[in-house]
Amino acid sequence: MTRASGVGSLPGEDLREAVRTVLGELPDLPHLPELPARGAVAGLTGRGVAVIGDLGFDLQPAGWRLTDAPGVDHRRARSLLAQDLDVLEEESQGLVGPLKVQVAGPWTLAATVEKPRGDKVLSDHGARRDLAQALAEGVRTHLADLARRVPGAELVLQLDEPALPAVMAARVPTASGFGRHRTVTPPVASEALEWVLAAAGDRLTVAHCCDPDVPVGLLRGAGAGGVSVDVTTLAVTAYDELATVLDEGGTALLGVLPATGSGTPSTKAVVERTMRLLDMLGLDPGEVADQLVLTPTCGMAGASPAYARALLTTLREAAAALS
Length: 323
Description:
The protein is α/β, with parallel strands linked by helices. The protein has twelve helices and nine strands.
């Protein structure tokens, strides 16, 4: 059965309403919504540091920074996450089946969090190792907490790595803006990903990256059971790797509709787009239908509430048609 889900973020600031929307529109694979409109403590990096309990962070004008002890904004981020989990627990009473949660990956955090004295964690081998290992422990604790709160859920971990291609291609600027951080080699990149993905235990893990040059093979090699990609911009060179994911029985979350816009394509158009993609990959739709999840191309924080709801409805209907 083909399913539909969201990438993570939604518009607005009302978490309870967002949870109800997701549970209603995406019953086969709901997810914990993220609402970045609530501020930096609720954004991708803010939610990532909220999961980490073994390191301290603080929010500066330039962004998040490692500190000796948790600052007020780090405590706010952790408190907001706990409140969101309370709401999820209340609204998902009786839920049985898959439930997806998203966490920023180690390389995206290393590219967005600064060291205590400036510049990105990415520039320091020891600091980025400590960050990745602390994230792995935080993910382990986070999933255990969710399993207790929603005992009927089959938890799915989505690791968000939008910055990974830039990290590996030496495209992340230094603090001065005049240079670029050195490239991270595939073996080094894979090791940090392995630590965090392994923290999920035997649960399904998915690695999300909406960059056209997403390293699908690297993510799978690091232990991701599935990948989440933007198929509307995906580089042709990644097609073979995406086909391999499905050939090997992995899960593919296909970003088939723009995350922002006005109006949405018809269900028929989404089905036809997905069928054309599978044809290009040389795959039989009937054989891989159970491995497919239809999603927006990326997070929908910048969309209007009406567009976001209409998009989720279209994805659900298209998934049902493909099934």
